């Protein structure tokens, strides 16, 4: 089953944002009164009432009716109805209004697409408006909305107007990418191949590269690490052949992302220079449980996590727990002062060459570190068992691997740890 929320996230990333969901969370008491209708909406309601032979007083009966008129007038109606904020008694009325707005936008977009006076630019805008509203209906859980969205996109790809067909193909691809985590393996593999072929065929156009990268991100965020890794790695191979330095740099980053996603369950290679200027002897840590902690003194969340790591180091060090800090600081004096002040007992890595510090640290590049703290836990065999060893997760893993900790008085005093009764 395709995830509706993932489709909308993907469409936003690809530039086809669904109508703002802020309307769903507006305070009902703060919305304008029911009589505050925009001019174009009033006009459409009046026209609908007149056509039905109803008295003019009934003009507010259907503010969602699409007016006749020029493309400009229809576009103005869409803009104004999307800004309409009636007053509602409950959430059900609010959802009903949002649904009607989308339905009216779809109807108005269809009228634009068939309007004899609409130029191709306006038609392309109508495609975007229609698809945005269809996606919103999917997000609202309307029955058949997803099928209608896919069908509409496919139908529009056959439109004789090149701009309309091209826009529909882009949106359809965005929908397919949004659904990629829920696809069967063979279909997901086919989609990855299709997207990467487009990168090669376009000779590394920014649009095609962005689409491929978005596919990898979507798969990664959905927990499809193997598929995301494959997408990143193959895209990296393609970009390495480009003569564009920027794309070459992206190739290196993507290779790191892929390598990082492949880490769980595998041996982690580690090297670098310690603060004392000596090379790290990674083999000396074999047989130990090691936290490889990517951090920096300027990182707030890193500093918030530090007391937890210090406490667990005190509790489990004698049982075989070690920490290797990989500092992404660029200011070495600041790092040294911090380590001395906090009395950090474990090894810290920082490169001698200032050009290889910060996010350019070789280990950060190698494993595609994109955010810190990045806490990777390695077991006694040197294999990665957790990519998010922070807070309670780190404590639970250490207890599982090394057994219950014996809490002594100094640790109780320094870190406020209390024995369980």
Explain what this protein looks like in three dimensions.
The N terminus and C terminus are likely disordered. The chain has a five-stranded mixed sheet, with helices on one face. Helix 6 runs parallel beside helix 8 and helix 9 packs antiparallel against helix 10. The chain folds into three domains: 182 residues, no CATH class; 79 residues, no CATH class; 134 residues, Glutaredoxin (3-Layer(aba) Sandwich). Strand 4 and strand 5 form a beta hairpin. 55% of the residues lie in helices and 6% in strands. With 421 residues, the protein is mainly α. The chain has 17 helices and five strands.
State the major sheet.
Answer: 5 strands, mixed
Rg of Cα set: 29 Å
Tally of individual helices: 17
- Contiguous low-pLDDT stretches (5 residues minimum) are 1-38, 40-54, 415-421
Into which percent range does the helicity of residues fall? 40-55%
Structure in a nutshell:
With 421 residues, the protein is mainly alpha-helical. Helix content is 55%, strand content 6%.
Fold blueprint:
Elements: H1 4-14, H2 22-25, H3 39-51, H4 71-82, H5 91-114, H6 120-139, H7 145-156, H8 162-179, H9 185-201, H10 206-221, H11 225-239, H12 245-261, E1 289-295, H13 300-316, E2 321-327, H14 332-342, E3 347-349, H15 362-366, E4 374-378, E5 384-386, H16 391-402, H17 409-415
Parallel strand pairs: 1-2, 2-3
Antiparallel strand pairs: 1-4, 4-5
Helix pairs in contact: 1-6, 1-8, 1-10, 3-4, 4-5, 5-6, 6-7, 6-8, 7-8, 9-10, 9-11, 10-11, 11-12, 13-16
